[in-house]
Amino acid sequence: MAINFDNALGVHPQALALRERRSEVLAANLANADTPNYKARDLDFKSVLKQTTSAEKTMERRQAGHFAPPQQLLGAQLMYRNPNQVSLDGNTVESHVEQAKYAENAVQYQASLQFISNKFSGLMMALRGQ
């Protein structure tokens, strides 16, 4: 009997990849905090993950002439963030907001890693017969 890791791990690998992508976007925002006219970007984790999981479960390419389902995981739509206070140089990055979002994303990334670790621990216990 083969183990299907997609079923065993659930949504956690996709969530981990999206958290990684979001951390890259937030880091780019922080790196460009002093760049004139730079617009802060972010991705809406919940909507992108929902699109990713629903596209995998409902859309299939059955004929060669059909379009393939959109790859939302790596090509996630980035949105612009509205600043609380507009700067004179047109930059919308607010360092304190970006640092808070980055820290929040880091904690959620660690949680996703822990969920995957727990899933693998459960699989190992089942394989050992414990």
From TrEMBL:
- What are the recorded Gene Ontology BP terms? bacterial-type flagellum-dependent swarming motility
PANTHER family noted in UniProt? FLAGELLAR BASAL BODY ROD PROTEIN FLGB, FLAGELLAR PROTEIN
Gene Ontology CC terms, in alphabetical order: bacterial-type flagellum basal body, rod
Q: Which residues form the Flagellar basal body rod protein N-terminal domain?
A: 12-39
Lineage start: Bacteria, Pseudomonadati, Pseudomonadota, Gammaproteobacteria, Methylococcales
Spell out the subunit comment: The basal body constitutes a major portion of the flagellar organelle and consists of a number of rings mounted on a central rod.
- Family (UniProt): Belongs to the flagella basal body rod proteins family.
Spell out the protein name for this chain: Flagellar basal body rod protein FlgB
Q: Where would you find this protein in the cell?
A: Bacterial flagellum basal body
Keywords for the protein's UniProt record, in alphabetical order: Bacterial flagellum, Cell projection, Cilium, Flagellum
Q: Which Pfam family is one of those matched by this entry?
A: Flg_bb_rod
Main function: Structural component of flagellum, the bacterial motility apparatus. Part of the rod structure of flagellar basal body.
